[in-house]
Every structure is written in structure tokens, then in C-alpha cells.
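S1.2 Input.
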Amino acid sequence: MVDTNTTSTTVAHRRSTRRFYPALAELLSVMRRWQQWGTLAWADTKFRYRRTTLGPMWITVSLAATIFSVGILYGTIFGGDLSQYLPYFAVGMIVWTYLSSSITEGCLIFIQASSLITSIPVPLVLNVYRMLAGALIVLAHNAVLIGFVWLIFPWPIGWVTLLAIPALALDTLALLGIILTCAIVCTRFRDLHQIVSNVLQLLFFLTPIMWLPSSLRGEQLKFFIHLNPFYYLIEVVRSPVLGIAPDITVWIVAALIALAMLAMGTSFYVHFRHRVAFWL
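S1.3 Output.
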């Protein structure tokens, strides 16, 4: 007698396997074609700021105004050493801008590219890589501000600073997983984009960017740090830039977050990538 449950499970497993390997191969093959989506990202950046004098540097100018005005104000309010607070706030703000703007824009990436998706048979993930490459270009512009802050309040720079490169890679992998998930879900449920935007606004104030972890009073408030994934994603980059080796716990948690987000995003892409065109 044939076990119906076992047969159903086997069939479902085979279907899942048939979906998984082509989707994974698609993710990797498009990633290797970095010249393609990198060129598109550069063209997007130039097209977005055409007929402007400063181009994407306008984002950097706006961020610089925020960093120096808010940084000096809150540094004075907290009564700390401005030479330590302003670099801490500046680097944290730059990394947060990279993370939050990528997630916010990534939620709508498939909706904004709907005409391309429904007319040309290109892999969906190309749009995600393209958007992330554009975010990295803007991040490179904003990173110039770190040099200006260093000229005003210099801090020790050594080999530890190079750890910011693998840390940024971890953040980018985490973003890839988050965007794959949010882009697919937001295509099906359009209201989710507003929810994500509001949650990010709230998390900005709950994440140690404008305030220092040492300013918390009482152990019961430390959960704002320990249970906040954005703290680890920011701190793993911020500490090396400031010449401080991140704690091993920060590295481990940031790596686990990146792996978990990437696994979730890959799973969503495997199961729903063929449905996105019908949801647009």
C-alpha cells in the first residue's frame, strides 16, 4: 500500500528542488555580470541628476548639513566631547542612510521597473543588483564627508580601518536578502511600503546613531541595542572606520543577520519570482 503523505512530500520536495537550483543559478550568473548592472546603475545615477551642477553630490551636501547641524546640537546637549561624538554620529548617519534608503527604494524596485519586467525577459534580480550598485555609488559620494570630519577631528587610522571593507560586504549581503523579500512582498501588497518606511523612521531613533550606548541608564534598556539588528550592521562598519576593532560578538551577529536575510530573500525569490509579473 502506497503512503499518500510520503508520496506528496516527495513530490513537493522534487518541485522545490527544481525551483531552487535554477533560481540560485540565476542569482549567481547575474551577479557575475557586474559590468551590465554596474553600467546601468551608473547611467541611472547620471540620469537622475541630469542638468544639475553637483549631481549626486547634492545628497552629500544635504547629508553634510544634517551631520554638522544636528551633530553639533546634540553633541552640545549631551555634554560630551564633540571630537568624539561628531565622528561617531557622522559615520553612523552615513551607514544608516545607505541601509535605510536602500530598503525604502528596494521595496518599490519591481513596481518602478514594471514596464521593463513585463516587456523584456530579463532576470528580476538584475533590477535589485542595479539598485544596490546605485546605492553604493551614492555611498561612495557620502564617504567623502568622513574625510572632512577627520580633518577637523582627526582620529587614529590603521590596519583596523580595512575591516570596514568586509563589514560593508556583510551589510550589502544583508540588504540583498532584505530587498529581495520586501520587493516581492510589496509588489503583492502595496501598503507594505508605507509600513516599512514608518518602521525605519522609528528604528532610526531606537538605534545608537544620535545617542551613545553608554548614555543608557539601566540594564533593562539595553534591549534597544541587543535586539536591534541595525545596531550590529552599523557598528560593524562604524568601529573600523573610527579605528576601533569591533567586538567579536558584533561580527558574529552581523554575519548571522546577513546569512539569515540572504536565506530568506533567496527563498522568496525561488518561490515567487515567476509570479511578480502577474502582480504588476
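S1.4 Remarks. DSSP finds 14 helices and no strands in the chain.
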